[in-house]
Amino acid sequence: MIRHNPNKLDVLGMSASLICAVHCAAIPLFFSFGSAYMADLLHHPVFEVGFLLIAIVVAVWSLGKSYLNHHQDRRPLIVGVIGVVLVTFGVVLHSWFITLPGGLVLALAHFWNLKLLKSCTCRLRTA
Q1: 3-state secondary structure of 93
Q2: Closest to 21 (Cα-Cα) out of 101, 111, 110
Q3: At 123, is the secondary structure helix, strand, or coil?
Q4: Which of 29, 46, 32, 27 is nearest to 95 (CA)?
Q5: Which residues have CB under 8 Å from 67's CB, separation 6+?
Q6: Are 99 and 19 a contacting pair, CB within 8 Å?
Q7: What is the pLDDT of residue 54?
Q8: How many CA atoms lie less than 13 Å away from 19 in the CB half-sphere?
Q9: Could you read off the pLDDT of 51-94 as tens digits, one per residue?
Q10: CA geometry: angle at 124 spanning 119 and 126, to 5°?
Q11: Is 49 helix (H, G, I), strand (E, B) or coil?
């Protein structure tokens, strides 16, 4: 039995997804408090696409690697794909109420993947 170290990519993925969710929740708050400049800055396409690219790279690398080399459980991978699709639609449609749940779903996928890795009794594949 191999003891797996905590997957730092899942921790990064959860953190990035939660930061993305907080970012999406902050935009309407800034508008409601009258700080349109700050809301406009946070809603800039560079931030939006940057978060999206980071989420996709980390999710593919972390969830895919764990699925292929360790636990072979598709559920976190499927939940991760759903999260990435929601975040992508939210960014494309400029809709925080689609992106926010997408970020939370993606964080859940990373959390689930981390739990599976901690309880994994697999043999590490090197191929």
Answers
A1: coil
A2: 101
A3: coil
A4: 27
A5: 73, 74, 76, 77
A6: no
A7: 85
A8: 14
A9: 788 888 888 988 888 888 888 899 999 999 999 999 999 889 88
A10: 155
A11: helix
Q: Are 9 and 17 in contact (CB under 8 A)?
A: no
Q: What is the pLDDT of residue 104?
A: 87
Token digits for 95? 């809709």
What are the tens digits of pLDDT across the range 27-57? Answer: 666 666 655 565 566 667 887 888 788 888 8
Average pLDDT over residues 11-15: 77
Going by the DSSP 8-state scheme, the letter that residue 1 receives in this structure is -
CA distances from 120 to 5, 10, 67, 126 (A): 11, 15, 11, 16
| Number of residues in the chain | 127
> What is the amino acid identity at position 31?
F
Q: Which amino acid belongs to residue 66?
A: S
| Closest C-alpha to 111, from 88, 72, 79, 84 | 79
Residue linked to tokens 């689609």: 98
